[in-house]
Amino acid sequence: MKYQKRKKAIILLADGTIFYGKAVGSKQGTAFGEVCFNTGMTGYQEIFTDPSYYGQLMVTTNAHIGNYGVSNEEIESDSIKIAGLICKNFSYDYSREAADDSLENFLEKNNLLAISDVDTRALVSYIRDNGAMNAVISTDVDNIEGLKKQLAEVPDMNGLELASQVSTKEPYYFGDENATYKVAALDIGIKKNILRNLAKRDTYIKVFPYNSKFEDLEAFKPDGYFLSNGPGDPEPLVEAQALAKEIIKRDLPLFGICLGHQVIALANGVSTYKMHNGHRGINHPVKNINTGKGEITSQNHGFAVNREEAEANTDLQITHVHLNDHTVAGLAMKSKNCFSVQYHPEASPGPHDSSYLFDQFIENIKRN
Ligand SMILES: NC(=O)CC[C@H](N)C(=O)O
Known about the structure:
Its EC number is 6.3.5.5. 24% of the residues lie in helices and 30% in strands. The chain is α/β, with parallel strands linked by helices.
């Protein structure tokens, strides 16, 4: 593959702006999605397989993608979930002893369209100024008008329900069935490393489809409940919100991450909104209000919880704040055994500063 002439490709944004690149490998075609960027210097495989990114065209700001190959251990779900990849230099060669394959083969197996040789700095500054928006990437470079028409039909991320597209169809189990604690987890796009983190803390988990009822989860006789991360807008997730309300009403231990955090806010009557650009990277500073300590966190979200409404809710405490823009990064209910964070304590990719939140969940379970 290495020295062949690459096919031209374009990135067409919903506002008509065009960027140019070349197709990675031999794949040709067209892919639609919301264009967003991740600033992590490592962790591309975890990012590409994170179900939270379903429906998004991912721009990686690291100048090199693919240079350390892929490993069978570093997947966050069983397939690539991003809609397409946009990068600067794509490494066809890779170098890492633990790697199982090249990124090029991994993308090909997952049938993913990727575009390299893009001026990603210019593209990222453009999105930073103008906000996340729908886009199309394509090797069909002479069909701009046709692509524009198709792009106009792609639904806006605002209001879009996507959790049902990535959730498990059937319940399944994770961990050791003789573990001390049992947790019922709602899969609205769950990352594997959340399950690994719970299992590591002596927990046996049953994972449920996105539209499961409280009675379904309760039948497992869990000691605690978990609401996962996931793609799309949290607002249309009415079943998950109803489930959260049932758990909260009974004051059972509840922990939510990212989309799960947003669902918990909505269940408390606090609204969510689409951010200009969202947070996607592995070096986002967060302050824990209760300890005064800072944490460097892994983040991936395009929506956030309304801060004024959270402050006005007398049963909610804002426990964590994002230090770059002061958005809500964590919530706890004062009268209930329930807390949540907007970021990713499971890392994968990213730093492990926040893994204490899993310990906190186990403590809440014990206390109950
Ligand atoms: N990682 C997540 O769970 C993301 C939640 C939601 N889809 C958002 O973009 O805000």
